[in-house]
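Below: protein 1.
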Amino acid sequence: MAVANSLPCIAVIISLTWMVEARIPEIYSCAWQSAYSTFSGESMLPAPWMVLDMEKSIYTFLTVHRWESLNCMKYRLSSLRPVHGRLALKFLNWLIKQPNLELKHVTHIICTTTHILVRARMYNFAKTTLKHMLQLPIGLNSVFGALMETYTVCNSNPAVFDLLIRVCLRDKMVGDAVQTFYLMGLRGLMPSVCTCNMVLGSLVREQKVDMFWSFFKRMLTKGICPNVATFNILLNALCERGKFKNAGFLLRKMEESGVYPTAVTYNTLLNWYCKKGRYKKASELIDSMTSKGVKADVCTYNVLIDNLCRENRSAKGYLLLKRMRRNMVYPNEITYNTLINGFVKEGKIGLAAKVFDEMSSFNLLPNIITYNTLIAGHCRMGNYGEALRLMDCMVSCGLRPNEVTYGALLNGLSKHDEFGSVSSVLERMRMDGVGVGHISYTAMIDGLCKNGMLEEAVQLLDDMLKVSVSPDVVTYSVLINGFFRVGKINNAKEIMCKMYKTGLVPNSILCSTLIYNYCKMGYLEEALHAYAIMNLSGYAADHFTCNVLVATFCRCGRLEEAEYFMDHMNRMGLDPNSVTFDCVINSYGNSGDALKAFSMFDKMKLLGHLPSQFTYGGLLKGLCISGHINEAWKLFRRLCSIPNAVDNVIFNTMLTSTCRSGNLSDAIALINDMVTKDFLPDNFTYTNLITGLCKKGKVVDALLLSGKAIEKKLLSPNPAVYTTLVCGLLKHGHSRAALYIFEEMLSKGVEFDTIAFNVILDQYSRKGKMSEVNDIVSTMKSRNLCFNMATYNILLHGYAMRNAMARCFILYKDMIRNGFLPDKFSWNSLILGYCKSKSFDVAIKILRWITLQGFETDCSTFNVLFSKFCERNEMKKAFDLLKQMNQFSVTPNVDTYNALFNGLIRTSDFDKAHRLLQALLESGSVPTSKQYITLINGMCRVGNIKGALKLQDEMKALGVCPHNVAMSATVRGLAHSRKIENAIWVFDLMLEMQIIPTVATFTTLMHVYCKKAKVAKALELRSTMERCHLKLDVVAYSVLISGLCANGDIEAAFKLYEEMKQRDLWPNTSIYIVLLDSLCAGNYHTESEKLLRDIQAREMVSFNSYGGTKRLNELLIIARKKLINLRFKMKMPGVYGKTPFLRDAALANRYCRNLLFLKLQEKFRKSTALVLQGVKHSKVFAYSMLPHDVVSKHQDLMTTDSEDMSRM
């Protein structure tokens, strides 16, 4: 019986002895105290935590692998020594309260007590004493030394140093923990592998990678054998740094070393594979896990389900839940919460509710997270009744709604503009005792801001402060973002001031928000200021923020600063990514600097960034805009051979270039190629083609294309297309047609945004049609479209050009009231308006004031005044302004020098003009050939031949133009100044030097000879031209024909006229009038009839019949009168083929509309058929005629216009 009673005790002792050898002090303590109680018969009741640890120990014994190996182990019993830990602790507490104790004595007593507590297995109290000792001002080395001094005296064990390491880790003193480890090694002591694992885990969390691997190597050196937990930490560290290949290798080595991976090991790898999108590796790992006999647990499935839900594949996650149950793995609350959250995020609130019901049916109680997720989902969908029902259900289950619950309700109500229900929710919160905190207020303010109710949002912020609820940075961020969204910067700054007054400082998110919004609105300096605040506050900018700044630098044309900022990113340890390079490459491409774009592309490749379609698009744009079309086509063909390098944007870029060059057939071929490569033309493709046609003046083609494409539903009606058409019509004089299309589109419900209205406003404003501008502004207001900065600037410039300063002042006040700060364009318009009204003093005062106030100004602002002063020949004021410009550190640009140069030329101050060109050279710019030629002409006019020749040599040295152009300019200047002998001398010198003069030079000398009735000399010059392989132009023929007619040689003049036609040169009105004058004076029946037929063929005049000689002479006189009239009313050559454009505005509009709807219909039929033929095969679009309703609307216009044309 006694033996039977002692068997459990013996089993406990055996177990305890084995555990002692395994060095698990907590279990050792609990079990030995239990054994002592059993053998001694004393009633020693252990503390509750000791009982709990003992139960865990017994459970560990019963579930340990290789249980049978216990029979082969040798056991030994250790005698117990009584250790009075509690008494020692009481003594310590009494002692440290005594006065006048030296720090050395206190340290010694605490160390001794710590050893006693460790021996007594009172580890929690030991940790407290160690923490107290670490807080003493003696340093870690002294603490460790004191512990070692008392170590042998107290007959302690190494567990005290394990505890010291753990205390350091718990207090986030990872460096001290590692140092303790090294100090232990120097004394021949080793911490347990569990303690080492804790150190490794802390190093991973602290991102101290180098220290982590150094510590692990020292572990191995000291002979500390890693266990499964160690390998799990190593795998996690490798995966966190993206070294999955090394992690796989470590997993294999782990198995080879006899350390078998557990489910935790596989779950660690699986989690990282899913996070990084390595789904193939994750699948292989699951297969490996199954083949190794490691059963997937609930954590494994949770990792997979969570990843699927993050990827918006919650339905797949639900199927995995079903599979999980089939495999007898029971899901927990986390599983269901993940699925419910996934379905809610995807907007599938019905499926989320179904999963919620299933959760309840499996006896899993939903927690507050579950309810909050569902309530938030219903509120997002506007199902407030269901959300309130869930809240009642939540209360009935014993769960109390918290601030998050009510915050979701308030957020949903605010977003859906249900502000009437907000007050009832707030009342319920007060009844439930849930305080309305800053989160709830923030949700309501956010809703008000998103609905444009900014005044109410500010009032709610004030109410929040009145009830002593302190807003946080997020609250202020929401308001600031709301004001930025509508462009009210001043109001946003006021909110910032309020935030600073409360003692809050911007966090990284608010700084990023400020930078983004400032950049979006073009306030780069303000954005840089916010970036400086961000850096000074210790926040590191991420790639998004830096890329926004780089993109804004590029958008403002400050590309050098963008590159400097990229260097700054490198210095800050944030390497520019592919998006950064794409922004700069695209901007260089847009500016036409292909060389710089390719230079950045080379840097991008050197850093290992892969180019994208956006990168290639920027390079192509650079080549196209800079005029290197052949190189662009070569690059395009090379890209077509690279997989996934070409997309619609690339094709559209090439299409833009092709349309700009006017190659319609190439454009159609490109669209065919686009369709062949399975890229369907999009809206941008059609808009691109329409824009190209409008820019080339082919407005009718554009109208035909857009009308038929929309009719065939190949092009969706959008503001961009109609804006392009309206602007094209306006640019080419069809104002009534443009207004008709614009009104027609408005009546059809096409939603023009503010940008589209701005484009149309700009065109009307440039044309000076301010009444139409006012009508469009009224339309914008009726459609509740807010003005942006560009709208105000367009209107200011338009009214300033009309000298309507009262309207400008009203606009300025309205702009300030709406929170817009005037930019340089606004100030330029105001200064221009005052200059137009001749209030130059006021303009100068405004310029000084804005410069002193720190507003953004540049050369363009000063150039407005420069141009006006120079136009009025007030050069002294202009140069005084130049001095002020230098005082304000604004560097003059080319336009500044051009304005001053033109003014000096007008005032005949050629010496100062020459010095100005020298200053332009010193500033790094090269004067144009036109400026030099103008100056040469001026010097020749005043007789400064030496100065003119000096300028000629200067032009040659600078390479401004070829040497023959420079010398030709001197010849023409001398000729215009009536220095004929000098001009001929320089001309002959050019021929002797085998320098070929320009056609204009020959023409000038011919004109001189003809005026002096030396036609033979002029004809000799014509022969010289032909020997120099130069062809006569229309002006040269006009000079010679006029000279021959004046000399009475009509036959020779008519021969030149016929020769001119054979060379496809169309005579101008001057030639016709000269020939008609000569023919009227003589009897040239055949020549007269032929000339009249030519004039009639060109639709200048019309005759029914020619009749006899008398009738022919009458027709010659009539034709001459009509041509003289047309010389003042018509501008040659025309836009469409050889059709003239009228100078008179009213006649021009009628004439163009007549061409648009009647005469050009037949003329464009061939080009239309060409387009149809080219695109029919590719099924891109087809068009033939304007829509019927458009033609019918213009019947009245066509009738009146045809009458006007007949009168003309």
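Below: protein 2.
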Amino acid sequence: MSCLQVIRSQCTSGHQLSWKCHQNKPPVCAKCERAAAIAQKKAEKDYELQQKRDAEQLAHIRKMADIEEAIAQQDQLMKDSQLAAERSAAILQKEKDLEAAISRAKNPPRLNKVSPMLSNQQNAMVTQNDSTKSDFNVESKSVPPLSSQGNQTSPTNTAGLPSDWYLKPSESEKEWERQKNVEGVSNPHVDAIMNMTGLEEVKEQVLTIKALIGTKKRQGIQFNRERLNIALLGNPGTGKTTVARSYGKLLASLQAIPGDAFIETTGSRLANDGVAGIKKQVEQVINAGGGTIFVDEAYQLTSKQNFQGGPVLDFLLAEMENNVGTIVFIVAGYNKEMESFFEHNPGLTSRVPYKIHFADYTNPELLYMFKKMLEAKFSGTLRIEGGIDGLYTRIAIRRLGRGRGTNGFGNARALQNTIDAILRRQAKRLNELRKQGQRPDDLLLCQSDLIGPDPSMARSQSRAWNKLQEMIGLKAVKATVRSLMEIIDGNYQRELQEREPIQISLNRVFLGSPGTGKTTVAKLYGQILVDLGLLSNGEVVVKNPADFIGAFLGESETKTKQILASTAGKVLVIDEAYMLYGGGAGTGGKSSDQFRTAVIDTLVAEIQSVPGEDRCVLLLGYKEQMEEMFQNVNPGLARRFAIEDAFNFEDFDDRQLLEILNLKLKDQHLSATDPAKLVAIQVLDRLRNRPNFGNAGEVENLLSQAKARYYQSRKNPNQVDIVFEAQDFDPEHDRGDRASTNLSKLFEDVVGCEEIVQKLTGYQQLAQALKKRGIEDRSQIPTNFVFKGPPGTGKTTVARKMGQVYYDMGFLSSKEVIECSASDLVGQYIGHTGPKTKKLLEKSLGRVLFIDEAYRLGEGHFAKEAIDELVAALTLDKFKSKIIVILAGYDQDMNNLLAVNAGLASRFPEEIHFRNMEPSRCLEVLQRELARKNVHLPELDLPVSEGYIHMFNLIHDLSILPSWGNARDMIQLSKKMIQIALLAAMTQGTPNETPMTISVADAINCIDEMYNSQQQRSRATATPKSKANDYPQFSPPRQPPAITPDATRTQSKTEKAPAPPQPPVEEITDMNANPDEEMQTAVAKRDKGVTDEVWNQLQACIQAEKEREEEIKQEAERLRILVKEQIEMARQQQLLAEKIARAAAKDAAEREELKRQREQARLKQLEALQEQRRLAAALEERRRVEEERRKKEAKAQSALRAMGVCVAGFRWINMGSGYRCAGGSHFVSNAHLGI
């Protein structure tokens, strides 16, 4: 029975085979047999095609050979004819030489006794030169000109080639051919040099050295002491190494050196091996019988990184002199770098007498080499669209040649890189066509291979270009890129017409805030350039300034060159490039960092910004800092990076930020309600006021914060669908709706700020109106303020609350208030103040900047510089309406400050005046401060109590003193009272939960102590303010001496009757009693020339003023007595009521009588209180009227003193129609004063 088991195996090609066990294994694999048959058929077909091509090629070669042979025959006939003529001329020359030699032998020259050898040689040379020159010129007329032979090195396929693309005939090659054909000389090493393309100067110098050696030999001069050391200078790829090798062998063949040993090394290797290494090589050459030592890149010996290079070069210097005639030293390097080599030691120039400069290859030479390289690579089988000398080839060579003349131009190496790039483009194109099923010609170079794709077509197919157009915002950037692309399109068309392209640079400056897409656009920009064929690589390499800056001298240059070398063909992005500038903010722009300067200088030297340069460098940074850098560093940087054509990345507006927010929500599978999105945009709008707004980065940060708040506030953290609400983006998102309520609550602890609250409420209403109408005009709301007022009136307190007010209105990104003084703005040396002030303003962006004692900015030169900087900065868009600036100080001092700079007053049009606090307000502040520490002073609750009135009078007396601090003094008093209350509570054992109490006597003692202390200080002589101002200013009005109200103080202590609860009359009397004015009136004498009528009228006005003041005092005294009587009556009625309440009635009738009497006492008490209020209102009205009069009078007196009419400084007396000084000579009318 047959076995049916299936057996599986694989053939040698890996195909699966299967058969049953009773069957034999298949002898062959069907798949392999089928594949072999297909391969055989294909091979036969390919063989037939190859045979056909070979036959056609063979026929072509035979025909070309016949033509070349015919041409060669004609050329040979011409050469034979010319050679025969040259031979005849040479024979004739030699015959003449023989005759001259016989003549010299027969007639030896007369010897000079002083120097016989020199005279003999000179005479012989002169005779020979003269005779040779004469005879040769005659015979040479029959020799045809060399130019008639044609250009032997020109390409044969030159149809349609412009005349300027032909290789120029080499005169050195012609001379060498002449010597070989006529003189019969030969030297394979000279042949090798002559066969090189170009290098006319090199060839000429080689023939000169060869002629020198031949001349020396003919002269019989020993040649073993001739210095033949040579320096080969030029860019890479010019054949320096090849020439060096041939030069050494040439000298050996001419027996200029005894041996042909050749050692090739580099400057870096010599420096690494040290003196011992070069000594060993010198000995090696000497042992070999002499030869050549070739040091390539010799400038590396003087590099700062090679510490052993200097000693090695010093050793070489001596060996060059010791081994003249035995060893020839050849040094090679780039032109600029070799300057440091020869500067190392002055003796190098004399020891290396020959210098050959290798010029960069011209376009015809590059074209010739291009053809030779392709011919060697493809053996003549490659075909080129337009021909090997056609338009597209010339365009490719022109692009390469534009780098000619620059340091580091690669010449032949760069040409090889160009060929490699062409072949890469060809391979990419062929691959794309093969993927489409086509059969392209592998041996054809088309237009796109040679010069890249058409930019207009490549741009439409570029993914990077399309992605750039899809990016949000960036309107200006897109327009700039589009304009650049249009220029590139135009240049492509100009090249097709063989016109020079418009000079543009791929290097660009990107200016903008963070988060605006600079790095993303940089990558897209680089890819676009690659798609257009302008860059060979397109990789984006991001670096920052720290990657360029070295730790020691010379390292910055090295690191910069290494980075530039490694990014050839790529896009190099230098982020925050402004950090390469060593000066800047805080330094006054005067300092310099040599390490950073070295980086910029190297960038300028290495980056050429010429068309065809295979490199793109992008400088990224903030606009202001970048502009400052370009203004202060190497001017060449601005030529290589045109900052006026920079890509300006503008901050995203609200609509664009909303698009970014929606995009990020979509990418992260999140969502948000429409109100939440609106709140998010409002938050971003406030953040925009801060410096360096992060744009898209801020959106990401805001989303991160919203995620954290979402999970903190949600009860179900495992919820998958996340929908953000308004409170997730801003927990206080409704602050704008609560602004008025917040404002009232914010100022509830500030005494006497009703006018300020009213003004700020108006600002809030205006902001809401603008927001409701969709008007974005923040200039309608004031942002710069001047706070004027005495100390302790709440200027600092109100300023601290301004941050919250403007934050609620959405004007600020933070409620923070930055407090500073004038010292924080003023610098210590010239040029320091401006940057310091600017830095403080930048720090305060989006906040409130409160400058206390701002009047000090009017003192000194540096302070004036701070004012100038402040005035200039507040007009810039960077700061305008993005910062709240408050200048605070005393009234007159602030007026003087605003007069220093006219622009300052216009920048601060809003003024808020803080007045001295009334005693009742001061006691209110005192009561609040005590209540905060749980301390109670009962008399403060009873304005009609004797203790309250006593404290009222004492504080009134305090307020008259010059050192009066308003609420500040009240806070200081509260501290002392709290200390007394704490000690008393501890002594009495008062429980902690029970409020502490302080007696009125202790409170009055505290006020007395403060009064006595400040009174003593007021008697001290005040130190005048600094007059260090170096700019003209008006003399300030004379200030009255400190008031010492001893009489008032004594009266307050001796009077037993309490003062009224309101102080208007006393305040008016004291404030009008100006001791300085009284003194001026008392000492004023009648001026000369004053008539009796004027003087009598003046004295009458003075007397009327005194009588009016006396009448005011009497009226105040009368009102005070009435108030005292009413208070006493109310007190008696209160005592009677209390007595009646305590009495115990014995019967109903007596109880009714007592009830009636108690009711009468209550009614009388009410009448007394009403009368007290009436009198208080009358006093308040009188005080208000007198206060207005006093202010008007004070304003008039201040204006009169400022005018300086009265040089004696007398007080001015109101005459009704005007004012006259107390001396009587000067008069100013009301009309002139403007009242």
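The mean pLDDT is 79.
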